[in-house]
Amino acid sequence: MLILNLKSSQLNVISKPFDVEFFGINGNEQSSQFFEENAEVTLSWRVKANPQDVTVTLSHSGKKVNVVGSEKIIVIPEVGIIVEDNYKQQQPITRKINIIPKPINTPPPVAPVPSVPQPQVAPTQPNNQPNNNVTPPPGGF
């Protein structure tokens, strides 16, 4: 909505405040989300603003969109929305969601098997058997 100030000979346009009411994937607004690689998800948004006062852009594609909408996308690392004041009187609003891909059909990691201590045995070599035979010294015992 535009508010016009007609008190002077100049025409001043004052834009009405705007806000992002919702920006999410599959109904979830969390800033980081996990999805399987190549999954198709629904990106949705709702901006509280007069459509004539703002420009809404999906940052991952550069696509200009309506103030309310949704579209199906394939999982990518990050999606975002940028809402800009057409009269440059307010700062743009940006929202982003990081998507963390989880591998498709990957079995859960297997816990390592704890090692069982083995008894220590002194190595012996063949042909090096202890000599239990006593040889008498020269001249006998």
Structural write-up:
About 0% of the residues lie in helices and about 45% in strands. By secondary structure, the chain is an all-beta fold. The protein is rod-shaped and about 140 Å long.
How is the secondary structure organized here?
Elements: E1 2-5, E2 12-15, E3 19-25, E4 32-36, E5 40-48, E6 54-58, E7 63-65, E8 68-74, E9 78-85, E10 93-102
Parallel strand pairs: 4-10
Antiparallel strand pairs: 1-2, 3-5, 5-8, 6-7, 6-9, 9-10
| Uncertain runs | none
Spatially, the strands of the biggest sheet line up as: 4-10-9-6-7
Contiguous helical run count: 0
Distance between the termini: 124 Å
Q: Structural class of the helices, strands and pairings?
A: mainly beta
Main beta-sheet strand count, sense and barrel state = 5 strands, mixed
Secondary-structure arrangement, i.e. CATH architecture of one domain: Sandwich
Structure at a glance:
The chain is an all-beta fold and 141 residues long.
Question: What are its keywords?
Answer:
141 residues, mainly beta, Immunoglobulin-like, rod-shaped
